[in-house]
């Protein structure tokens, strides 16, 4: 189970900050790499548990994004996107 995912009993109580979001993104990166490695080895059935965690993390990040006020992108984000 993902250590950064907030359990039901703590929902609404957890402080969401950039560090938590970054840990989720880093964990998602590792999950994608792990899933890809298992798929390359032909072990698709072992991927299911990692795919479920990845799905849960993505839904959680989407929920955070939907609940967040619209914040204009930073200058650094704009530079990365080539705008």
UniProtKB/TrEMBL annotation:
Q: List, alphabetically, the InterPro entries matched.
A: SS18_N
Occurrences of domain SS18 N-terminal (ranges): 13-71
Family from the record: Belongs to the SS18 family.
The protein depicted here goes by the name SS18-like protein 2
Q: Which organism is it from?
A: Clupea harengus
């Amino acid at each position: 189970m993902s250590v950064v995912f907030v359990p039901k009993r703590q929902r609404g109580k957890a402080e969401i900050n950039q560090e938590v979001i970054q840990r989720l993104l880093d964990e998602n990166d590792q999950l994608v790499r792990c899933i890809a490695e298992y798929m390359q080895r032909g072990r698709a059935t072992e991927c299911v548990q990692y795919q479920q965690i990845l799905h849960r993390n993505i839904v959680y990040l989407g929920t955070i994004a939907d609940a967040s006020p619209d914040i204009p992108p930073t200058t650094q984000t704009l530079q990365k996107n080539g705008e």
